[in-house]
Amino acid sequence: MGPSKLAVTTDGAPSGRQQLRIALADDNLIVREGVERILAADPGMDVVASCGDLPSLLAAIESERPDVLVTDIRLPPTRTDEGIRVAAHLRDQHPEIGVVVLSNHAEPAYALALLKPGSDGRAYLLKERIFDRVQLVAAIDLVAAGDSVLDARIVESLVAAKLRVEDSPLAALTGREREVLAEIAKGDSNAAIADTLFLTKRAVEKHINSIFIKLNLAFAQDVSKRVTATLLFLANPEPLPPA
């Protein structure tokens, strides 16, 4: 099997291509210089800023007003999700600036956080793509045109997560039943669950009976029911859609 392609959402490739002003952000100097050299080989790309942390990036955005930002997810000072937060900031303050977010890992949660406010002008790529100039330049061109790009491996991860959710025995539970099950998993008694969720003890008992029926635990011993239900809950950490 050959290398995976990029999953592109686009109404068409940009025509009449003009030189794009690019800002780079990565705390790894070698990565930044590598990307800069790759883009310098393309006459349609002009790197106007190269930043190693969030404060310098925000300053460069205001002073240079790039067409596209190419950024790592994690930047100093916290090295958590600065790239995602910058993309959200630009969505509000400078919606005309496209953003290409780079990641070392196929992390669907970050991709969803990036695209949730809107997918136009946004791309999420694995860092391995920066070694393929054609794919990197194509992603930059597309987000500059207002289109979106999502790495095919992220798509695969999202599909796998959806299939896990659909196959989960917890999928049949209502939202309230999942809340009750989460409290069971903490080891709380029925009375404690009632207090936490502002329910009557009788309502909690009804929810628990329904949970056991849906999880095919109705005829198990009481202790085994709660333990097995807890194991099922802990084995399915992905958020489930409301039933």
Describe the structure.
The structure is a single chain. This protein is α/β, with parallel strands linked by helices and 243 residues long. The chain has 2 domains: 17-161, Response regulator (Rossmann fold), CATH 3.40.50.2300; 168-234, Orthogonal Bundle (Arc Repressor Mutant, subunit A), CATH 1.10.10. The protein is 48% helix and 15% strand. It contains 10 helices and 7 strands. The protein has helices spanning 29-40, 54-64, 82-93, 108-115, 133-144, 152-167, 175-185, 190-197, 201-214, 222-234, and strands spanning 6-9, 20-25, 45-51, 68-72, 98-103, 122-126, 148-151. A 7-stranded mixed beta sheet has the order 1-7-6-5-4-2-3, with helices on both faces. The longest helix is centred in the middle third of the chain and has 16 residues, at 152-167. It is elongated, with a radius of gyration of 23 Å. The protein starts with 5 loop residues before the first strand and ends in a 9-residue tail after the last helix. The relative contact order is 0.12.
Low-pLDDT runs: 1-5, 8-15
Helix-strand category = alpha/beta
What is the CATH first-level class name of the largest domain?
Alpha Beta
Q: Quickly give the CATH architecture of the largest domain.
A: 3-Layer(aba) Sandwich
Question: What separation lies between the terminal Cα atoms?
Answer: 38 Å
CATH fold title of the largest domain: Rossmann fold
SS elements, strand count: 7
From the alpha-carbon coordinates, what is the Rg to the nearest angstrom? 23 Å
Helix content: 40-55%
SSE string: EEHEHEHEHEHEHHHHH
Instruction: Classify the beta-strand content into a percent band.
Output: 15-25%
- Average pLDDT, all residues: 84
CATH homologous superfamily assignment of the largest domain: Response regulator
Q: Which strand order does the major sheet show?
A: 1-7-6-5-4-2-3
How many helices? 10
